[in-house]
Structures are given as structure tokens and as C-alpha cells.
């Protein structure tokens, strides 16, 4: 195929089909033929206008596919892979410090202008060019395409959150917000040895997703405390406040849901100091977390309720319809094979 087919986002809920010539690869690059992509909540925020995004562009950052051309050592044509959201330089002070997700020259798939030098940049296309600064991980055969796609954003971010939380063995863990990240975090905390996991969300349907996974499944205001670890994934001010307020002496709060502007919350420094408490944030992840996400899905993915997580499947040309429709699951699936 000399061209890729893509859905070009024009702003708002407007998309246009576009034929994009397949480029010559540079050293370190891959051409991946996308088999499935999922619609992340942040993509919906971009299309709805809640989060700004450059356009025209090819959106989508959760996906999986097969390598159809490779100029990277160790990656072969035919490998089935997922890829990191970020393309990083590997040389700046942040990359050298282990914070490549905040690289001074970072570029992100599904977030770049179409004519900005990286045209096949998003997963809502038949092909994606993976740049030299992006990590890739090989997907086990038994992990389905749509399941694997979630590794590249949601599941890898959860791996970063749990690392930031520290050892979980025997500890009481609160997970606030039961979207894709929250449901994954509940399962991963149990796998990580947590002694007691409390899951909180205002939506009954969301709470049902972790019934049988979490030890306690509660609505806001019912949360039991104090807890050793609190992971906040809702991004809502009341959720952040409740999460911070749940911490026991020596507890750690990891905030990862606050990726859009909201009202600030109060943080009493005396409470923090006298309680030996830790509050940290996580945004995106490092390459090791992508590998950890694939390993988690390969070994423990069956714990997650995929029939409820994965909603309707849409062919690529119906992408605009997928964004206009109310979600049927935590992740709607763009199945390139339906085209």
C-alpha cells in the first residue's frame, strides 16, 4: 500500500478522510500497521473542547498493530507492538534525570499538527510512524488487540502510579475514580499485594465494574479511612480533597486524574509535616511502565471485566460517529479490520 488512510480532525466534532503517502523511514523509526485503537477520555475532551488541541491533526494515542517496516535494531517486521505516547530526545536534563515524560523537546502521538513534520502521528489511521524516541513493547499472542491498545496510555499510567505509591504489600489502598485507570488500578493493587483495596466512585455502573475485585466498593462520603496509599484518578476537586483527607500517618497520595484546569484545593503544611505524609503527581510514564503494562495485561489482564470495559466497535471511517455517540463502555474501539 502506497498510502495510509486516516481520519483528520478539523476541530470540534468534524473529521475528514485523508489519504497520506507512506514516508521513507529514518534511522530508529518504525511503520506500524494499526489493527485496533481505543478512544481515551482525553481524546473526547479534545473533541468536545474541554482540552485544547492543535488541528488539523490525526488524533488517537492508544493503539496496537503490526510492524510493516523497521529501521530500529531489535524490532522486526511482523512484530505485534504497542508504543509509548511520548517521543523524547533522550539527551536533555529531564531525560537524563529519568523524567523523559517531561522531555524539554517532547512530542506526543495524537497531539501534533498534521503538517508539522510527523504526519502519521495518531492511531486513528491505518498506519503510524513510531519515532526513535518512542518506546515499544511486543504484545503476547493471547492478548487481544483492543485490550493491548490500552497499555499505551491507561495501563502504563497506572503502572507509574503504583511505582510512585511505593510498596503495597499488606497496605490499605484507596482508589478514587473508576474509569479505565481506576478499574486497572484496583486490579493492579491487588496483584501488587495490597492487603485491603477500597474503590470509590459516584456512579453505580462504575462501581459494579470492580465488584469482586475491590474489598470495599463505595460511593463518595462512604470512604473508610485512614489509608496507607490513596490514588486519585477522577480529577474532580471533591475527589482530590477526599483523597488527601483519607491519608493516615506516613501515607502517600498519588494524583493522576487532574489533567485539566480545576479549582485549587487547600493543603495544610502542618498536616503534611506532622503526619509524614507524601503527596505526588504522575503524568504519562517512562518506558519501563509501558513494558510493565504489557506484562500486567499478559499475566493478569483476565482480572479486568473487558466485556464491560470495551464498548462498541467502529470502522475507521465511522470515527466521527463514535465521538458523537454516548460511550457504551470505558473504551470504544476503532477496529481497522472492519474497514
TrEMBL record:
Q: Which SMART domains match?
A: PKS_ER
Q: Which Gene3D superfamilies match?
A: Medium-chain alcohol dehydrogenases, catalytic domain (3.90.180.10), NAD(P)-binding Rossmann-like Domain (3.40.50.720)
Domain Enoyl reductase (ER) stretches? 12-330
Question: Entry's Pfam families?
Answer: ADH_N, ADH_zinc_N
Q: Which UniProt keywords apply?
A: Metal-binding, NAD, Oxidoreductase, Zinc
Question: What's the cofactor?
Answer: Zn(2+)
The organism's place on the tree of life at top rank: Bacteria
The record, for InterPro entries, names: ADH-like_C, ADH-like_N, ADH_phosphonate_catab-assoc, ER, GroES-like_sf, NAD(P)-bd_dom_sf
Which residue ranges are recorded for the region named Disordered?
Answer: 43-65
EC number from the UniProt entry: 1.1.1.1
Which NCBIfam families does the record cross-reference, listed alphabetically? HpnZ_proposed
* Family matches, as PANTHER family: ALCOHOL DEHYDROGENASE 1-RELATED
Q: Which family does it belong to?
A: Belongs to the zinc-containing alcohol dehydrogenase family.
Q: What is this protein called?
A: alcohol dehydrogenase
**What species is given as this protein's source?**
Corynebacterium guangdongense
